[in-house]
Amino acid sequence: EIQNAAEEPRALCIIQDITSAKTVNERLTLNLPASTTLSKLYEDVAHKAGYVNGTFGLAWGNTQDMVSNSSAPLDHSSEMSLSESGFEPGGKRNFLQLTDKDGEQPQIASVTDSSGLDDSSQERFIGPLLRDGTPGYSGDYSSPSYSYSSILSKSETGYVGLVNQAMTCYLNSLLQTLFMTPEFRNALYNWEFEEQEEDPVTSIPYQLQRLFVLLQTSKKRAIETTDVTRSFGWDSSEAWQQHDVQELCRVMFDALEQKWKQTEQADLINQLYQGKLKDYVRCLECGYESWRIDTYLDIPLVIRPFGASQAYGSVEEALQAFIQPETLDGPNQYFCERCKKKCDARKGLRFLHFPYLLTLQLKRFDFDYTTMHRIKLNDRMTFPEELDMSPFIDVEDEKSPQTESCTDSGAENEGSCHSDQMSNDFSTDDCVDEGICLDSTSSTERVLKPKSLLTFELFSVMVHSGSAAGGHYYACIKSFSDGQWYSFNDQHVSKITQDDIRKTYGGSSGSRGYYSGAFASSTNAYMLIYRLKDPSRNAKFLAVEDFPEHIKRLVQKEKESEEQEKRQREIERNTCKIKLFCMHPVKMMMESKLEVHKDKTLREATEMAYKMMELEGVVPLDCCRLVKYDEFHEYLERSYEGEEDTPMGLLLGGVKSSYMFDLLLETRRPDQVFQPYKPGEVMVKVHVVDLKSETIASPVSVRAYLNQTITEFKQLIAQAAGLSAETMRVVLERCYNDLRLLYVPNKTLKAEGFFRSNKVFVESSELTDHQVPFTDSLLWKLLDRHGNTIRLLVLLPEQSPGTLANRTLFQKQQQGSSTSDSQKSSDASDFEHIESPTQEADSNSSLCVAADNRELENRIRATSAGSGGASSDPENHFACEERSDSEVNNDRSTSSVDSDILSSSHSSDTLCNADSGPIQLANGLDSHSITSSRRSKAHEGKKETWDTAEEDSGTDSEYDDNGKSKAEAQYLYFRAEPCSQDDASWDSQKCLVVHVDKRITLAAFKLNLEPYVGVTSTQFKVFRVYANNQEFESVRLNETLSSFSDDNKVKFSYSYTVPCKFLVDTVFAKGMTVRQSKEELLPQLKEQCKLDLSIDRVRLRKKTWKNPGTVFLDYHVYEEDISISSNWEVFLEVLDEPEKMKSMSQLAVLTRRWSPSTMKLGPFQEVILESSSVEELKEKVCLLHDKCVLLIACGRGTFPCDISVLEIHQDLDWNPKVSTLNVWPLYICDDGAVVFYRDSTEEPLELSEDERNELMKKESSRLLKTGHRVSYSPRKEKALKIYLDGGPAKDPGQD
Q1: What's the whole-model pTM score?
Q2: Domain named USP: which ranges (predicted)?
């Protein structure tokens, strides 16, 4: 029998779990004997998947033979064998899908140890599930038997989780705690929503009520909280803000109190959560006591006292410290009203009344004044399961008549004893309810409770895992129904034990020293909620049958909604979703998604696609059909003749999340007949080439077989295109720019590299072009141009900037220039780039000038690095193309602000141009077009070589091994013509159609378009326009247009400002001093840039992006004192007086005065400091200013740190409390920092609304022109708010 079993054929079963989006990619593999029954198959699958048998179904997967049965799951109780049920043995794969049963997800099988352990040995989980491996996360929180699949369906605990929207774990923890509080849940159920009085969407109590009903009755694993947060008035951005759970508790309770006014629940929060304490000061000489009563909703307990080296070890210890009085003596003596003098006194807090639900906040978040950062205290603090609060209540005060109403002395001192002036342990911003004066209380509250009634039991621990910068919240909650502890971790709910609660104490089991928290776990308790043990008040949860009528109606409504959602999910599960394409006779190629039920026939699907593609009235329905299509290869795989009544599920291979193919709705004319497409055929698009007219015709589609020979293939093309097969040349384009001449007659198409979809070019003429080598032939050149030429739609600017005289000057420069060195702008405010001769050295650097209308920026000039100028060649348009990527200043940014600098600060923005002839300006465009396709004389008559991989790369070096510009070796085709009416998606008067070789660089492309734009290429920018009309600037001038494609849109705009202008390339050699480099540089600047400068009136500075940094002194040596490298950049600054800096220990700071009374900023003034002292800076500034009562602030952002005059007074951090410049918040450690100063006695100018608006417009214009942002707004923590009216007020003028 054993031998027979071994020889029995086996069925390979591959099961896909589609019950959840997270398991859809998982596969289970079983290799079972073919005689295995279906019931045994279900048992094996249940065991391997970890599901309860009978709670799931198995259906056939995506094999075409079995798809017809996919609608009916396999019978789980059947005794039929696998072979009898249609399984194929012998190593063939049988695909199955594990599905829901009756719309409900499978139940997870409980894990029980075979040794017979109790329930505590079952799998459990506590802690931040998605943060395994993060610092502070203990692996002890999950048992080794924990299975990932166990979290994918509703928890076996019977409780429902909450979905984390993004960072709303703090909200989920609080909501689950409130839900598990019987008194709160029952009171919420007893409140009835009046729909006619309020919108249900904005009603916080109603949305909480709905959420609690779903938590109690839903069959889902987890439910969303978006309806609740929407009722708070939050938008989606709030989901990405993590807040403090204690802060949320306060704010939400305030919101509920406002919503419940004048209802039975009006005082619910106070009845459940509010306690009373007395804030007192007692004179130690006469015994007189000044006091007031305050209320509290939670008690904040200090973990580690300020300045202490040891943390409190337990909640009881922290509570004792909370009520420990403080002695006021010495300079802190208290003025006694009775003694009429200052006396020693005792100040403290006493608890008068504890709430029914006691909330303790463990203050784990603190501020470290050494590092000036927020920190989290992870020290160990124990808390009991039962807490006796009787030692902490003041019995005398509870009995005292003074606690019943405010005495004269209490009222008199109410202001001085305000809760803002409590002891340091309690006077925190957390106490938003401080200062409430209570009226006389009811007699029941005045009766002192026996100590036995002050025992509280712990039922909720809100845990924080992480640091002060952020982390994760979850809740450990004890059910009052069965006494079991559960972990509510967002959507995951699991049982835990008392040992798991003890793990949230924090810290380590060792000493409680100062550094005990530094190496402790970051997962610890943050909020504790206790309930008073009072049988007369302790409530039980309302059962479903005891719900009020309005809650029963709500339960039924939510149940129907859930059933509808389940039915919709079932429909989705049986719907095939596949890409659909159609070559519309009018709208050209259209794309959509066809969603069709798997049982719909091909005929019905065709009719749906016909309506979707809007073909009604254009093409008859019987002239359309659906075919299998490969969009990537543009390949028609097969047609479905005779299968019009076949279900789509069978044709498509089942319902899948994605398909490896698409569908094409093919159309024909009524007089045509559809061509059948058979599997195995290849599609060939044949383009006929006419060498005489140099044109390439539109393609003709031909289907062939891979085993056909080239001769047979030529005969096939001759019939389709009407050409002669004898003189035919066939060229296959296998991939981009890979042209292969097919000249071996007996070679098959497969051997030549044909694939599913192919493109060939055919030519059949009697010209002698056949006799020359293919790479030298006219056919090859025409195809090469065709393959690399793209058609762009270019929108020209509205009008040319500047005067007509400037335009004429530009034309004269173009016509009169013969070398690049002669191209200089006569505009004194705009330095044009002058090419320098090629130079080589160990280290190179270059200079760039900052041209702006402000005083300092006119003095600072920048330098941009290069590898030497390109040689001048009047025949070569592209001899001055950009040199390398590293020369572009921060190309990563393409914003409209930064690109203004990036596109114009580089040397290659100004390119050499030797074109001649009349120039057509943008506004006078006619049908004139130019063709720029030249080669240098050095290459004339030589055989051309084409390295397509190198040419296609936009980031490779543009020089070949011989040092020649690649532009000299490229066939750079360019032709421009006005837009026709067919292309008039833009105004045809301002639009060009440009046919250009995409191997051309952006710099050369701009150069060729200069005649149409009307200005030099440095004075306009290029923007690429995408399908959604978004515009992104193209700034990398050395990159080619290879990323562009046909009919892409390009837009030009003028550059009105040039904040940083390139000056010249130069060479700084190793061992050279700064003064020596200046001596070599100044003649170069005089010759090329017409700058006559004195060596004692210029300085070189480090260029840190846009900021002028360290000042280089004359005696500094390159590579010894100053590290330099190839493509290095420095600033050149022109000084008004000789250099004042003499030592590197000095600090050069740029100061600028702010005058609030005039709302104006003064000019920049440089201050040289001997140290990093703030006092020295103020003293030096005083020498510039007639008053010495000054406030200073450090500028923000990049140089020149521009800021709106409307915002500078509030946004900058004036007069920071620091003594040195190199600490926070100044952080001035290098030359070039900008410091603003103002007179502290000067008040801001009062502006009317009209004056403010006018000034705002001027500031916006000023800051945008200088390339700086209108305002600086650092990211700040967002305050937690709940809006009672459904959302924040949309005030456009509000800051």
Answers
A1: 0.50
A2: 160-533
